[in-house]
Amino acid sequence: MSHIGFEMQNADAGVAPAPNDSLYPTIGNSAPNSVNHSKMNPIGFEAAEGQDNDATETKVSLEHKGNPKDDDNLFFNNGVDRIDYILAYEPGTGEEETIKEKRREYFERELEKEGLKLEREDKTKSKSGKVCFVKIHASWDVLTKYAELMHMHMPLAKNDMKIEFDTCFSKCPTPFDLDKDIVKLDDDYFTAPFSRMRMHQFMIKDRDSFFSNAKRSRIVYEILSRATYEKEEGVEEGRRKFGIKKMISNESYDAAYPLHDGKYLSEHSILTRGKKNDRHLLYEIWAKWRVWYKFQPLDHIRNYFGEKIGIYFAWLGYYTAMLIPAAIVGLICFIYGCATVLQDIPTAELCDKTKSGNFTMCPLCDKRCSYWKLQDSCSYSRATYLFDNPATVFFACFMALWASFFHELWKRKQIELEYEWDTADFEQEEEIPRPEFEAQVRRLRTNPVTKKEEPYVPLWSKTIRYFTTASIIFFSLCVVLGAVFGVILYRIIITAVLYSSEEFLLRSRSTLVASATAACINLVIILVLNQLYLKIGLLLTNMEQHRTETEWEDAFTFKMFLFQFVNYYSSIFYIAFFKGRFIGRPGAYDYNLFGYRQEECDPAGCLIELCIQMAIIMVGKQAYGNFKEILLPKIMVWFRSRSAKNDKSDLTVYTRWEQDFNLSEMPQLGLFDEYLEMVIQYGFVTIFVAAFPLAPLFALLNNIFEIRIDAYKFVTAWKRPLAVRAQDIGIWYGILTGITAIAIVTNAVIIAFTSEFIPRMVFKYFYSNQTSQYYDFSLSTFNVTQFQSQSIPDQTKMEIFGNVTTCRYRDFRNPPGSSDEYDYSVVFWHILAARLAFIVVFENLTVFLTWLIMYLVPDMPYAVKLQMLREKYLVKEAHFASETTKQNNDEHRAKQPYY
């Protein structure tokens, strides 16, 4: 359902298609002839009277005319033809420039053959005196022809059954609502794929406004992407070199872009004078920092930037809003930990010299490390309790359900947007083959659906390409694991060095220092490898030769997410599930890691290290991304604008097309980086939330800024991107679903095996009457005379401990001297059984509640379903009406006398 805002009035008539129009006609086809249609059709749609095409092309209201001396002019020099696209290039010298000039001439001749109007601006007319511009205008005939070929949905009838559910909350004004006096909602319409044969049935107010700027630019780009620029001798028609992307890559043109609607700033307040243009409106109500708390104007974003960008901001806003309850509950759990940390009995015993704090602990590294008192871990234990307390278990269960609710409610929202924005059947019906696919693939076959010859990649070729891709991906993932392995070695070595220090402060904080510095190093490695994997992902995806843009994006997204998943999460998985698990025990340490003894967890557990690792990587990544997104585009725009203005006198007009040329280019991969950043963040929020309950809060704060940063970039710092259509968020939804499933398992395992929750519960309910202190229960005893030779501690540092005969270590084993000394004790098996039971109960309960949510929450809202049925009915009636009119006309002509 398009929100274009046209009124049902008499309109100009349409153009009938030529009988032999193909799906994508060859360059140079003549324009179809115009015909007249009746004013009214049998089902009651108001139609338009036919007019001459040429007359309508020159019929422009005074407010639409452009002034060539206006720096916001959006028209040709005649003040009539609107600029739909701009091609820009900086001419050079030499033989290479001659080749580029020939390509440009050939390319532009092909555009003119297709019906586009071109107007050229010499470099002497630019502010910089260096850049030439080619302005492109699409006529009415071209727009209607390609609107039909591209299956564009246009207004057919007003929506007469818009259902609004008024509640107490919806009637109450909130500070988050947009000002309705400024942001006026467009009327809703039922829409249908455009047809020139039935043009009289569509609601056309006038030809100048029937196609929005976004639709006009998308049509022109479709022609640009298929126009040829060079033909090799002896090459068949379908093998010619074509496409604006190739022209930019071979530097024949420097840029190709649609124009922004004008300046985003105005000397007058939007409250008193209203919007200057759509760009100004979006800046005032969406991109300004002072409106950070306002709802997003999604329909306006979609109309200006297209459905693909609109659905990204819809998803980002929805995700951010859903983070609010998660952030509140996580903050409450953290506050609970802060409020009860001094009342925690095991931690109080650990910090008491007269109790568990006086235990002599076994050295944590070989040779250089000495014995130490458990009390040295007091601050570490208190910090761990802030994130490892009974509230954490509740929060993990809450987040599992939160993720399920998020998926189901977003699915409903997405279906609603698909209908509202006319993209429900886009991927099946509207999407066309990629020009690169048609240019690269030489094998042809008949499409069983369309019965037309089209490029085809056979199964054996796909198998070879995918096998090659999988092999390279596997090798790349091994490189990531190798980098993580290097960070682990660094942690082992730096911990040993710090433990051997004479400074007590360094010895007592060695684990924290090693964890923090290793996380920083890991963050740097992640950022470096990201750039490498980006190039590898592009190369592999292009090699696979995907047919459509959606298939290409999905394949590239999956590869890059796989890279990034291992890149960002591998070190965290190591700390959560592997650190301290395979070290052996005193007297039988494992030295298989290049002869090094592996890391141990603190007696309070590894959870605080996991929390540190997550906080540094998550917050550091977001800080780096925001710094790059805010400052870099602003600096580049300022530099280019300054250079342009300084090179010419003030008498030269700084035109709108040159102002936009000096803006930064939207990244080649479009929204991929934005989605990837948010999905990686979603992984931190869900997969490891049991270790870091504040993750949703940090994510919420980041996303509030992220929405406005992205909005500011799109409105002020970037060239206006092509208004690309999209049906949904693509493969990202499947990735989010997979992350949610992983999160249920990881949170259960983290609580069961990484945190101290299960051992504490077992001690509290089964063993507290036998042992008075938790750490006496959870720490095993070792006879120091049984140390391996390489792990005997430094004798020079042992005098402060006196004559040490036994030391304690973190495990559940039988004491020395027993018949089965150092074997796992009965307590170990009791705790293991409790851990496994917890995982089974946690996962099954979460899966059941998730299924219940999916069952109770229907995918499609009832109101949307009714409107879809109504729209299908109207489209069917419009087809019948068209056939009836055609039949009546044929019968009328048959009765006319023949001369």
Strand order of the largest sheet: 2-3-1-8
Mean pLDDT: 77
Structural class: alpha+beta
Q: How many discrete domains?
A: 2
Task: Please state roughly what percent of the residues sit in beta strands, choosing from under 5%, 5-15%, 15-25%, 25-35%, 35-45% or over 45%.
Answer: 5-15%
> Main sheet, how many strands, which sense, barrel?
4 strands, antiparallel
Helix % is 40-55%
The Rg value, from CA coordinates, equals 34 Å
What is the overall number of helices?
Answer: 29
Uncertain stretches: 1-64, 233-238
CA-based shape: elongated
Distance between the termini: 48 Å
The number of distinct β-strands equals 16
SSE layout and pairings?
Blueprint: H1 53-57, E1 85-89, H2 95-113, E2 116-121, E3 132-138, H3 140-149, E4 153-158, H4 168-171, E5 189-193, H5 207-210, H6 213-224, E6 228-230, E7 241-242, H7 244-249, E8 255-257, H8 270-273, H9 278-287, H10 298-305, H11 307-340, H12 345-350, E9 360-361, E10 372-373, H13 378-387, H14 390-420, H15 426-430, H16 435-440, E11 444-446, E12 453-455, H17 459-499, H18 504-508, H19 510-544, H20 549-578, E13 584-585, E14 588-589, H21 607-647, H22 656-661, H23 672-686, H24 695-717, H25 731-754, H26 757-767, H27 774-778, E15 779-783, E16 806-810, H28 826-856, H29 862-895
Antiparallel strand pairs: 1-3, 1-8, 2-3, 4-5, 6-7, 9-10, 11-12, 13-14, 15-16
